[in-house]
Amino acid sequence: MALKNTILKELEQLVTLKDSTRTWHTPMLTAICVGFPLLVGLYVDNLRYALISCLSGLVILYLPSSGSFTNRITTLLVSSFGFMVSFALGQFFSFSPTVAVIVFGLYSLIVHWIILYYKTAPPRSFFFIMILSISICQPFNLSTIPTKVGLVGLGTMFSCTLGLAYILWLSATQKIETQNAPVPLLKKNTYADFWEAIITGVIMAISLALGYWLKLENPYWIPISCGAVMQGASLYHIWQRTFQRILGTFLGLCLCWLLLQIANTPLMLCLFIIVLQLIVELLIIRNYAMAVIFITPLAIFLSEAANPIINDPNALIALRFWEILIGSILGAIGGWLLHKEKIRYASIRGLKKLGDQIEQNIS
Questions:
Q1: What are the domain boundaries of the chain?
Q2: pTM, two decimal places
């Protein structure tokens, strides 16, 4: 009976929309930041470059929903710089799979440690790692690196400009409390767990190495899926995300196959990307499983729109399913390890705080 109730509860959550305080502004901003570079690239007949630029438009997701004007725009600028660094590192170290795996693991470790140390809000390290994984799996070509990094810079510049306009609009239309005392941009967490960052880096490196070992055309699908699952806040959340991601991916691939039958022109692909991005941002907070259904075709269109394999939906769908499945399972294992480490570290930290408090009382 308990098992039956648990199954029914999980099935109910698949179709339940949670309450959210998120306004419609963020989904609309994200769709514009992703869609505008796409349409510009389509206009100049260079969809491949447009896809690079529109990917960096996702930096708008790091715009804080609250805080002072300076804090919000500075956070966006710092995140933009992080996007450019992530992409540039991937381009520079894509010449060797072995080097790529090592750099990817170390970078994931460092980024995750910084995120832990400064207690940043979601989406945390995910998009920095995603940008690096996509970039580092591209063929090495030294002569095109400045152009590609410049395209990422243009995408982030557009997002920052739009973010600035949005903040100014909010300031003009809403009452925003002014604070005389400066508010710190980042809150330091002196109890950040370095071992958690190490586990994340190792799992990310393994995921990319697995993609290379399987000789996949685009190995980054495994680390991206792995990283998405590991974003879970608890062990239950991680396993739930694994199940929802696999189920959502299956349904999303069916949707992708259907859309590919309709999208017979680059313009249709671009419009689908914009609409899917809007839907994803509307759903991601309220129902992860539903969002994954639309994330799957969105991710495929963003990464494969300029790839000839897009013209063979059957082969594309089958390949992506196994890549995402492997990444999700690996992410669940990594999430389990992270959960165990969090329990261990929380216990040690609690004992340390208790000891410090006892010493203060004695003295």
A1: 24-174+191-362
A2: 0.84
